[in-house]
Prior knowledge:
This protein has 12 helices and 13 strands. With about 375 residues, the chain is α/β, with parallel strands linked by helices.
Amino acid sequence: MQEPIPMLDLKLEYEHMKADIDAALARCLEHQRWILGPEVNALEEQTATYLDAKHCVGTSSGTEALVLALRSLAILRTGQEFFNCAQQIITTPFTFTATGDAILRSGATPVFVDIDPVTFNIDLVQIKQYLEKNSEHVIGILPVHLYGRACDMDAILSLAEEYDLFVVEDVAQAFGGSWKDKKLGSLGDAGAFSFFPSKNLGGFGDGGLISTNNGKLADLIRMLIKHGGKDKYNVDHIGYNARIDTIQAAVVLGKMNYLDEFNRNRCQIAEAYNQGLAGVDGIVCPTADEPGHVYHQYTIRVENDRRNELQDYLKENSISTMIYYPYPLHKMKVFGGARAIVANALPETEDACKSVLSLPIEPLMEKDKVQNVVAQIKEWISVD
Ligand SMILES: *Cc1c(COP(=O)(O)O)cnc(C)c1O
């Protein structure tokens, strides 16, 4: 039996970063300021500098970051607390549920358009076609930088300008990723990040962050995360209790020292997979040398309806893999009925759900483990 290869090894990462994290936690134990303590402010300042965004606000999760970004835009742009269901936001159906769910929670209606089969990101042609016929209903675009790969932000921002739409970037999978010379999350009206433990920059529990260059938006978000007012005992808006915990901010600050190194490691592992799997029949690798990609996931496509078979084979050989995502959003009950709009048939999304497979990409994994995964995939192909 060979040593198991997990998707991610958080124990190994903790050992590597132990000194920084332990020191950060010890400071919290000393000061005991658990709600909006000094680490929250420090994290907001450090991430704003890193992203080159004017403002960052910590939140209780990436999901809440999306909801808060949309709610604050509703207040700012419409003067209403929530959007209404006649107001539409275009997004991808090939993402984590939270992306579409946040749109529903903001009061708006999600419009699902198909993805590009090469990048797995939202297809710009599809957005354009929908806008040409329905622009009067659309208020915004919510692109997701899936697997850590940037959407074409030039095209998205130019459509947003043409049709006067807001853009909220879902950057949950792409902390540190960039589009041209700009960090993801700094390009749209707001960016929503997640510190879920398995993300490229993860905490020891739930947490998130919103980046924005709009001061009014940042002020509103700061009110909404603490019940909706500047004064918590006399509030203006329908708010939430959605602050990031001091202790999570401390952990994330400690881990930030390693973010760029870990993202570089992810790129090297991706390159090793690309080289190892090049030309293997029935396996489609991500396109190489994608600038700004931070490989939250290394995701291959397994052709000929054989994805589940390969996943089972690798599991028998102690190699973990994951399917992101087995179900498209438009097929889920929560987005059924009149709650969401399906712009067109979504064949690329449905095909991706059936064929994608994400391989282990632990930033500290040894190179021979990557080779081992490659060898097992080749073995599976050849015994066939
Ligand atoms: C993880 C994730 C979220 C939600 O983040 P949480 O911190 O888990 O709430 C949203 N969108 C995408 C694309 C994600 O991967």
